[in-house]
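Today's session is about reading a structure prediction critically. Students often jump straight to the picture, but the first step is always the sequence itself: look for stretches that repeat, for charged clusters, for runs of hydrophobic residues. Only then move on to the predicted structure, which in these notes is written as discrete structure tokens rather than atom positions. Here is the chain we will use throughout the hour.
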Amino acid sequence: MDAAEGSSLPPRGRIRARLPSTEYARDDERALRAGLPGSRAAVLSDRSLSYGVGVPEAAPFVQRARQAGIATVRRSTGGTGLLHEPGDLAWSIVLPRGDPRVGRQFPRAFGRFGRGAVRFLADLGIEAEWVDAPGLDPGYCTLSARGAVLASRGRILGGAAQHLTGAALLHHGAISLTVDRPTIDRLFDLAPGGPSVRLSGLRSLGIGDEPEQLATTLARRLEEDLFPVPSR
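Below is the predicted structure for this chain, in token form.
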């Protein structure tokens, strides 16, 4: 499954090989404008810092990232800043606004929209769940007090954010393959050995699969959850 052609976003269960975070963000916006039900997963190819629509350009962590030569990507979704490493997994779901699965409770439906990610981790032998964000640092997205995070045994593996328009809902997230705590501490002015110790990635949990293989499994689980095949 390859989305190189990219003109029919958002397709079901589509994956992309490695691509820059800026391109993945553009694809998300195109999918949101199209407003068609779909899901996809990808492997990010570069180190980047993404930040939510409400974060000012002058935010210190954005400026520090740029000074360090790290690509910065503004999301149309909420949340604050998040550092992505090459090989990290990104995933997205788009549903028309009138779809009953969106409903009125969508801002608190991280667990429901993220079931595919939980099942993906279960395939790897990792027991995980969506829990309230820990409120440890307001600047770093998965350490803040906003929304929910994907956690396993107290370690945070990823998070998600949303953008609702008049036509559709975009719910997208990321799962870390690796975590560079010293760089996160430096960009977000955190004390070494402080809040970032809660962050973890698949490699530190003993998962050695290639990222493309992981993305294929993730895409399949997202599709199965979003578009279940009726039993006979």
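Discussion point for the tutorial: Confidence is low (pLDDT under 50) at residues 1-11.
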